[in-house]
Amino acid sequence: MSTEAAPAAEPVVAPPPAGWEEARSRVYAVGLAAALPATNRSLAEADGHTLVEPLTTRTDLPAFPTSSVDGWAVRGAGPWQVVGRVLAGGAPPPLAEEGSTVEIATGAMVPAGATAILRIEESERTADGRITGTPRPAPEWRLPGEEARAGEELLPAGTPVDPALLGLAASCGHDSLRVRRPPRAALLVFGDELLTSGPPTAGRVRDALGPAVPSWLRRYGCQVRPADVVGPVADTLPAHVAALRQALAGADLICTTGGTMHGPVDHLHPALEALGADYVVNTVAVRPGFPMLLARVTSDDGRVRFVAGLPGNPQSAIVSLVSLVAPLLAGLQGRQMPLLPQVTLAESVPGRGDYTHLALVRLDRVAGTAYPVRHVGSAMLRGLARADGFAVIRPGNSGEPGARVPFVPLPLFPGERAS
């Protein structure tokens, strides 16, 4: 019998972390591939959804010549004989005679044959009831098709539906829209050390992400109900698996907080393995937030759902949201990949060697410059509360004053536009 020792097992080597820009592109692509199904919604129900098809107008805008003012639609030179009145909603007969006029209301259809509109406040009535005055040289009515021609594309597919879009759709003659619904999200908070009320005590810290993450997700257009926020989940593998299974039954995206490393009570990775998940991204070369992940779970009906593992440190968790969750949600809704504007650094921002550095900054919007804020440790939230977003310092670089760098804005309310 041979006494030769068996060869030692090869150590398992973790894959290198994904580059930050690569990770964003990767999660956007898988989100787009799993885009939520299209459905028809009435205008009253469509707010917060996303257009599946371009918004086109069903008619010329305006559909007929429309008076811009209250006054007199006149034909030829004055003084003019009053032959009628035109109100909004009516279809007037033509002005057939030279020297005739009809009183006209703002928004009313201009009668055929009219050559000008005289403003009511710039007109006078003669003793015999005729109208005098001088029309302004510029036309006082809107021409058919002045805003858009029938069939013209006004907004592309992938546009978020907001109140302005709803008003435009109604003016175009639409009663419903072909849209994708907002993603449904849930949050699982991991950590036996967390308190959900009151101040921190010895060995126990207050959960800051349970209240914050759902609000961030809503600003990215997600639906998150209070019942979808669960935790703290017990630090055991069975509890993690059970919580994930329950959340996956109703959500398109489950965010978890903590447990993304491989410590003695970090059960997220084994729980994902138990659910048959596969990783889209497992760690990202970014500071802070390095141990973030995104996994994909395919159910028996073939539907894909996602789990975003956010680190337990609060600022790192928000970095994970802007890095992985934002582009994923854009893909799921069929929206464009979020483009990053450029800002000019007003002060120096250090690099992080081979890692991308997302540095919290506040903006001087008048000057177009970005200033780093204080209190920016991965476990701190004070700096985040004063910041407008993150300056992106690419690997191998440092941010010098005057440098132009990409900027990741913190999300606004759905449909809200930055000033």
TrEMBL record:
<dbReference type="Pfam" id="PF03454">
    <property type="entry name" value="MoeA_C"/>
</dbReference>
<dbReference type="Pfam" id="PF00994">
    <property type="entry name" value="MoCF_biosynth"/>
</dbReference>
<dbReference type="InterPro" id="IPR005111">
    <property type="entry name" value="MoeA_C_domain_IV"/>
</dbReference>
<keyword id="KW-0501">Molybdenum cofactor biosynthesis</keyword>
<dbReference type="InterPro" id="IPR036688">
    <property type="entry name" value="MoeA_C_domain_IV_sf"/>
</dbReference>
<dbReference type="GO" id="GO:0061599">
    <property type="term" value="F:molybdopterin molybdotransferase activity"/>
</dbReference>
<comment type="similarity">
    <text>Belongs to the MoeA family.</text>
</comment>
<dbReference type="GO" id="GO:0006777">
    <property type="term" value="P:Mo-molybdopterin cofactor biosynthetic process"/>
</dbReference>
<dbReference type="InterPro" id="IPR038987">
    <property type="entry name" value="MoeA-like"/>
</dbReference>
<comment type="function">
    <text>Catalyzes the insertion of molybdate into adenylated molybdopterin with the concomitant release of AMP.</text>
</comment>
<dbReference type="InterPro" id="IPR036135">
    <property type="entry name" value="MoeA_linker/N_sf"/>
</dbReference>
<keyword id="KW-0479">Metal-binding</keyword>
<dbReference type="InterPro" id="IPR001453">
    <property type="entry name" value="MoaB/Mog_dom"/>
</dbReference>
<keyword id="KW-0460">Magnesium</keyword>
<keyword id="KW-0808">Transferase</keyword>
<keyword id="KW-0500">Molybdenum</keyword>
<dbReference type="InterPro" id="IPR005110">
    <property type="entry name" value="MoeA_linker/N"/>
</dbReference>
<dbReference type="GO" id="GO:0046872">
    <property type="term" value="F:metal ion binding"/>
</dbReference>
<comment type="pathway">
    <text>Cofactor biosynthesis; molybdopterin biosynthesis.</text>
</comment>
<feature type="domain" description="MoaB/Mog">
    <location>
        <begin position="186"/>
        <end position="331"/>
    </location>
</feature>
<dbReference type="Pfam" id="PF03453">
    <property type="entry name" value="MoeA_N"/>
</dbReference>
<dbReference type="InterPro" id="IPR036425">
    <property type="entry name" value="MoaB/Mog-like_dom_sf"/>
</dbReference>
<protein>
    <recommendedName>
        <fullName>Molybdopterin molybdenumtransferase</fullName>
        <ecNumber>2.10.1.1</ecNumber>
    </recommendedName>
</protein>
<dbReference type="GO" id="GO:0005829">
    <property type="term" value="C:cytosol"/>
</dbReference>
